[in-house]
Fold this sequence. Notes:
Layout lengths: L2 H27 L5 H22 L11 H24 L2 H8 L2 H13 L5 H18 L8 H26 L4 H23 L5 H27 L2 H4 L5 H14 L5 H33 L3
Helix pairs in contact: 1-9, 1-11, 2-3, 2-8, 2-9, 3-4, 3-7, 3-8, 4-7, 4-11, 5-6, 5-7, 6-12
Amino acid sequence: MKQENYIKGMIMIILSAFFFACMNVSVRLAGNLPSVEKSFFRNLVAAVFAAVILCKDHTLPKVNKKYWGPLILRCVCGTMGILCNFYAIDHLLVADASILNKLSPFFAIIFSFLLLKEKISPTQAVCVALAFVGCLFVVKPGFHNAEFMSALIGVCGGLGAGIAYTMVRVLGTHGVKGPIIVFYFSVFSCLSVIPWMVFHFTPMTVKQFAILMMAGLFAAGGQFTITAAYTYAPAGKISIFDYSQIIFATLLGFFLFGEVPDKYSFTGYALIILASFGTFIYNMKTASKKVTAKKSPD
């Protein structure tokens, strides 16, 4: 891989982390609207973007019946992940909600083992355990913690995203294109909350609507830049930079809302990022061994 492409990939994934941090902040700035309503408009923008891309490429959103199961599971769990993440953003520090959502790669490792029968190495197992210890520092379980349930819902958001990403992996390896997956997921997410919206719709101001549209645009920007990042460089070599979102979220939370995470949260951030770094190093070594094996004579 060319050094130039590696740098481009790194820049793109850091840019995507910034966009997603801005999306989270926009969700908070939208005020006291229900999380379901916020997710509807965020996904509506994503659905429109995906539809435009499919139309531009003259691609029909067809998926072989054999893969409807993984697609439905991706849609259901992805919707659960977004709803839980948005709820956590509204009730926790932006940085705390962001790091809990970043547990998704570790859930993906677990569900790749359970659903795809992929082996978990001892190194991966240690990293997963370390990540969940870090999660405990952020969640701070205990009856004295009024935010415990909100944090637990945030963890469920990471769980839903982890299953969803596992299904994206299944679909991607069978040739289902990214825009098609995004289109079905976004449309499903919108349709699934319409019954709730009909009976519980909360009127919003023009400002709130504009902010939610911005959240959708930031989300779309994040999706496009992270896709571009992985076209320049493999995930194993640049995924660690995705955790720069925590830095952006912490800074935005401080300057916009005066939020300062406590020492336990910072400890949790450090442990989760350390676990991610360990996974990153492991993936790099594994990829290097595979390349060496291919080059070696039979």
